[in-house]
């Protein structure tokens, strides 16, 4: 029964997240992306803490993968945000 509750919460969160993000105007995507990068950093710290408390080999492998994916997500988010901010610079600032 707990699995169904978790699945229901996941589906509700996915639907709510989609509805919220789809209503964001284009001009707010860059600030929203910067805010989500902050959340990805917190997720990365959580994955590192979980990896530090891992006792079995399976937990260590899953924790290591979580840290790798979290780091890639956070770094990739900052790269994309930087590229998006470059689009807003005027041609006078470039050279």
UniProtKB/TrEMBL annotation:
<keyword id="KW-0521">NADP</keyword>
<dbReference type="InterPro" id="IPR024605">
    <property type="entry name" value="NADP_transhyd_a_C"/>
</dbReference>
<feature type="transmembrane region" description="Helical">
    <location>
        <begin position="61"/>
        <end position="80"/>
    </location>
</feature>
<feature type="transmembrane region" description="Helical">
    <location>
        <begin position="38"/>
        <end position="55"/>
    </location>
</feature>
<dbReference type="Pfam" id="PF12769">
    <property type="entry name" value="PNTB_4TM"/>
</dbReference>
<dbReference type="GO" id="GO:0050661">
    <property type="term" value="F:NADP binding"/>
</dbReference>
<comment type="function">
    <text>The transhydrogenation between NADH and NADP is coupled to respiration and ATP hydrolysis and functions as a proton pump across the membrane.</text>
</comment>
<feature type="transmembrane region" description="Helical">
    <location>
        <begin position="6"/>
        <end position="26"/>
    </location>
</feature>
<dbReference type="GO" id="GO:0006740">
    <property type="term" value="P:NADPH regeneration"/>
</dbReference>
<keyword id="KW-0812">Transmembrane</keyword>
<keyword id="KW-1133">Transmembrane helix</keyword>
<keyword id="KW-0520">NAD</keyword>
<keyword id="KW-1003">Cell membrane</keyword>
<keyword id="KW-0472">Membrane</keyword>
<protein>
    <recommendedName>
        <fullName>proton-translocating NAD(P)(+) transhydrogenase</fullName>
        <ecNumber>7.1.1.1</ecNumber>
    </recommendedName>
</protein>
<feature type="domain" description="NAD(P) transhydrogenase alpha subunit C-terminal">
    <location>
        <begin position="7"/>
        <end position="89"/>
    </location>
</feature>
<dbReference type="GO" id="GO:0005886">
    <property type="term" value="C:plasma membrane"/>
</dbReference>
<dbReference type="GO" id="GO:0008750">
    <property type="term" value="F:proton-translocating NAD(P)+ transhydrogenase activity"/>
</dbReference>
<keyword id="KW-0997">Cell inner membrane</keyword>
<keyword id="KW-1278">Translocase</keyword>
């Amino acid at each position: 029964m707990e699995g169904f509750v978790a699945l229901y919460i996941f589906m509700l969160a996915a639907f709510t997240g989609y509805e919220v993000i789809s209503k964001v105007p284009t001009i707010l995507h860059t600030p929203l992306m910067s805010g989500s990068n902050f959340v990805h950093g917190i997720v990365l710290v959580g994955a590192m803490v979980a990896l530090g408390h891992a006792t079995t080999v399976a937990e260590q492998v899953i924790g290591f993968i979580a840290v790798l994916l979290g780091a890639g997500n956070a770094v990739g988010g900052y790269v994309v945000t930087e590229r998006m901010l470059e689009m807003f610079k005027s041609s006078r600032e470039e050279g």
